[in-house]
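WARN  no MSA supplied for this record, continuing single-sequence
INFO  ligand: pyridoxal-5'-phosphate
INFO  echoing inputs
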Amino acid sequence: MLHRPARRLLARTHVLHYPFWSNESLLNAFDSSASATRVAARISTGALDRDHSPNGDRMGYHWPTPGKEKSWRQQTYSTGFRKVEALQQGMAEMVPHAVPMPSDIRHADLVVNRSDHLKAKPRLDPIELKFGAVYTDHMLQVSWKEGPGWTGPSIDPLAPLTLHPCAQVLHYGSGCFEGMKAYKGKDQRLRLFRPDMNMERLSQSAARLTLPEFDKVELLECIKELVRLERDWVPAEEGFSLYIRPALIGTHPFLGLSPTREAMLFVVLSPVGPYFPSGLKPVKLFVETEVVRAYPGGVGDKKVGGNYAPTMLPQLRSAHRGCAQVLYVLQDGLPGGGLVGESGAMNVFFLLQENGMMELITPPLDGLILPGVTRDTVLAIARGFGNIKVSERNLRFDEIEHAAETGRLVEIFGTGTACAVQPITGLLKNDNTEITIPFDSEAAAHWLAKPPGMALAQPGSNEPFSLCGRLTRTLIDFQYGYVESPWSVPIDP
Ligand SMILES: Cc1ncc(COP(=O)(O)O)c(C=O)c1O
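INFO  complex generated
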């Protein structure tokens, strides 16, 4: 077993990717100067080369095409979005004969430092367990520097971070994050739900902020390891889950505005209770037409911290008016009451009826909307139901009002990892008038009580209608693995 500094050092060296050498054997090689010289000789003659996918991603190493060999001194390597000269980093001074190169996050380098002081697990009461207020014992962390790239990842006891007061994230909001969950099914297996989408979104958010790229598959493997370690924090009860919060922040201590040169990625876990301890609970939204959450050319489609802090005030004002959240309606100067966007932390869906035909509408991914994992899933499930027209299209507020006035507004609900499907029964406007949408809690409860997989079947002619309830049941069946799907990714012990 390598000790941590050695692993980290090795993680930054070119030779680590040599297919016939494990990290351990490399370390041994460095113990013997003769072997080290042999390894270094191979590298310096260009025997090892980098392989690039068509889009420039790192793919590992291969023997170079004859005649195309380059000396390693002439090569540049991509670390994140930047190209750096290999020798620029000075790593050669630290490991003689080994060529430094920017390294990526790799699960094989993960070091686990278990906590000696495991916390007593709180009573995981569905009512008392507040979302995001309780954390597990460990966290995953890995840091990045322009040049050497990512260090080896580690799982450590949960602890405060040490940041320079001039760290970019503290001043310029150079930070992005994700929200995903692990679910424990009745079979005691833990499962992630479409985690590749979270990794992709984190990567897109990071790129927008000049935060470094990372290997999404490898990061996910490290996250799975953390979840495995903390598996006892999740009761095998439907509704409970383990909220996973990866965050990537710019830590470069520099007050000038410049692309990030140092960063840190960490992941913390928080057990959370059922979305609806006593069934689906509808909420009211405040129709926000003055504060703008996202605008064309902005970052509304990225999960960056800067999108959220400015929403606290409208959220607070809406709470004073008895609303749980805000519905952002952008006044874009066109007639029709403004462009319907999304809610503070949910995508929104509207079910309208026209000549006996149902249309489920959600705003399109035009840069103003966060591409929600749950949104995408609900769209796919609803399309699979077959008897509903499913549209991703612009919706102006007047259309909703008109549908409500003419009795054609059937349901409104929000979607998100935290809430799954959240029924909405009221839209409160600034002039205190309200659009109300009836919510049939009995019909919703009927669908929630369906045995696994049965909500997917076509409803019988006597069954009550609740799209909200039917979607929720179907989503839960997939998330907990009651219905097998490629969306559900088991984490085996
Ligand atoms: C602004 C916003 N919209 C929508 C969502 C829902 O996204 P997801 O379904 O991926 O959780 C979230 C939550 O992450 C959000 O913050």
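The pocket of pyridoxal-5'-phosphate is lined by residues 179, 342, 345-347, 370, 372-375, 415-417 (CB under 6 Å).
INFO  checksum written, moving to next record
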